[in-house]
Every structure is written in structure tokens, then in C-alpha cells.
Amino acid sequence: MALVQKFNFRSTLAILIAGISVFAAACGNGAPSTGGPGKVDPNETAAKVNGKIITMEEVDRSVKQQAQGQESKFSPLELAGARLQVLQNLIEQEVMFQKAEKENLVPTDDEITVEINKRKVESRMSAEEFDKRMAEAGLTEKSFRDDIKKALAIAKLVDKVTGRIENPKDSEIEQFYKGNPEMFIKKRGVRLAAIVVDPADGGQGDTTRNQAEAEQRVKEVLAKVSQPASDFGALAREYSEDPSRLQNGDMGYLSEDDLKQNYPQLAAGFMNPQFTVGQITNALNISGRYYIFKLVERIEKDENLTLESPDVRPQIQQLLVENRKQLLAASYQAVAMNEAKIENFLAKKVVDNPNELSGARPAGSMNGESNSNAAGNSNVAANTSSNGNSNTGSNTAAASNSASTNAANSAEKK
């Protein structure tokens, strides 16, 4: 297990560009709002950043994207809070984008097009579905390109600012190792690689688009992996329909507890010594996708890692560097905000009219549930849309342990 993942720090870059990667949040089932509490003139100026206007149309579009179609259920009080929080994000983005412009870090049209195409592929949607979802989010081709442009520019700026961070000294690495002994225990578990075949038509280059094509592809892959000289990693790169294909199908190291949580029907089989390292399973249907697993490594008991253990020093170094980059980027943004001339007209309007905000919910929303969390979630839009996450197994279908063990034990040896 990577040490960097253990800390689970929020990415500073994600904080800086929250709301820019808007399409993921726009992929909910909500339809465009046709009105409701707090309706305003979309051309009204919500704020100015060094003279650059941010309109209420931009604010409400971001609110809609983050609320995923639930904004019509907000009370005026909740909607006002959501608008203020979204506006603060937009102000921070604009400040950073203007800094990027001054550093000549604005991406070219070709770079923007490449990023858009990448997101379309990662969304695993057809072109028609992608365009439909974008329209539901209130995004035009121009506004979507503008959002991508800002995201890329800010990412370049953060990279430039944090590029001055030097690698930590050996003494710092050793001090970190001694101060965090619990992080350096490799739990009993396995490392898996997989070739994933998805019958769903994800569009955008998906190679199997229905059940029949998927079953045919599975037969083809099983025939190839059963050959003595086969290269599982190469076959994963060629055939797998999962992001893990970029790492030769590597799904990472899973402790026994992780294995039970992510692949409960397979845990007993993979931990069984009769299922040997290098062995390959038959195609296993998990949540509608076919997984062909290879057991890459198995640790029978917990191991204490040392600084000389593979990857320990590099991972500590990466962790320390990334944490320093996050702190530097956040500090840079704070300074940039202090230097900018910011006029928040929406906030002033709330201060000047404190008694015009009602807490009553609009008609049709009295279901007893609270929507305030949805309104206040400023990070929803920062999530990247990817149905092919390599941890897909967390939603696996239930199956009996005996069936799992039989499936693993019937696997073919490479």
C-alpha cells in the first residue's frame, strides 16, 4: 500500500480549481431549473475581481452543477448560502487565473481540445450522452472550453509555483520514518492485476458495447492469457477497459481487510495457499463487468518495513514533497487574494438585507430530508467522472464464499 495514500490529504490543486472540473457533478439526473426561490437577473454582477465581472448566471450555473439538480428544493436561505460559497470559489479561481495570465501560462486551443477529448473518454459516455449532460448543466461549448482553459492555466501556475520545492534530506526522511512506525507495516494481503471487460456501451473508444461483444472478448482474452508465453501486462494494456490498463492492469496492493471489503466473494480464494502467485482466474462477473485477475503477490503475515525496503524511501520523499507543495500553493493563493481588488456585491446584498431570507422550503420539497449538505458541498464539482475506477470492486455483487473459492481454484496457471 502506498504511503502517500495513507495520509489521504486533500489535493491543493483540487481546492484551487474546485468548480472548474464541473462536468462530473453535472452528470446527475437533475433537469435544469425553471425557476424557484431566489430567482435573480442572470446578468446581475455578483462580484468583480480586479475589474473582471462574475455574473449571477455563472454563480447559479455552478450552484446547479454542484447541487446536481436539487437546487429547486433549496429554501431561500439555503440557496443564498450556496450562492455565497460558490461565488467565493469563483473569486478564488478568477484570482488564480489572472495570475496565470500574467505568467503567460494560458493553454493553447489545441491543449484545451486535447483535455476535453480526454474527459470525454474518461466519462465513458457516448458523444450524444456527453452533450446531453453538458446541456443539462447549462454549459455551452464555449463555457465548457472556458472552464477547461482556467483549470489548465491554474494547474500550470501551481506547477510553476511549487516547482521550487526541493527533495527532502535523508535526515528528514529518517525522522519521518521513526516518527510514524504504524505507517510502515505491510499487512497480510495480496497484490492483484486485472483485465476488465465491460459490456456497457461507454462510447468514446469503448471496445465492447453489448453483452455478446463482451463475452466474445472474454473468450479471446482467456485464450491468450492461458498461453505459456503470454504477457498479462501487455494483454491488459491491449484489452482491458479500465484505467488500470495504464499500469499493466495493476490494481495495487490490498490488505486482507481491504480485500474482504472490495472483493468479499474472492477474499477466501485469493488468500488460500492453493491459489498460487502467478495464477490467473477465470472471468468473474462483478457488478456487471468481467474481471480476469492475476495474483501478483501474496503476503502471508504482517511485515515491518525498513528504510531499505523497496519503495519506502521514495514514497516518504514523495509524501513530504507533496505536502510542502500543498502548503506553498495554498500560501501563494492567500497572498494573491490579499493583493487582488475584490468586490463581492452578492455578500453586500445579504448584509444590507438580512431579513429578506426565509428558511421555509419551497413547495414539493417537504420530504423530511435536509438539502443543506448538498447546498454546502463545495467539492462535488472537483470530482473527476470515471466509471472505470480501478476500485470498482467496492460495489461488487454478493456471492457465496464457496463459489468464490471454487472460481479461484479453477483458475489457469500462467
Protein described:
- With 414 residues, the protein is α+β, with helices and mostly antiparallel strands.
- It folds into 2 domains: 230 residues, Porin chaperone SurA, peptide-binding domain (Triger factor/SurA peptide-binding fold), CATH 1.10.4030.10; 138 residues, Chitinase A, domain 3 (Roll).
- The protein has 16 helices and 11 strands.
- The strands form 4 sheets. Strands 5-4-8-7 form a 4-stranded antiparallel β-sheet. A 3-stranded antiparallel β-sheet has the order 2-1-10.
- Helix 3 packs across helix 4.
- The longest helix has 28 residues.
- The chain is globular, with a radius of gyration of 25 Å.
What is the name of the CATH architecture of the largest domain? Orthogonal Bundle
- How many beta-strand segments? 11
How far apart, in Å, are the first and last alpha carbons? Answer: 25 Å
Q: Overall pLDDT, averaged?
A: 78
Number of helix segments? Answer: 16
CATH class of the largest domain: Mainly Alpha
CATH topology of the largest domain: Triger factor/SurA peptide-binding fold
Category by helix and strand content: alpha+beta
Using only C-alpha atoms, the radius of gyration works out to 25 Å
The main sheet orders its strands as 5-4-8-7
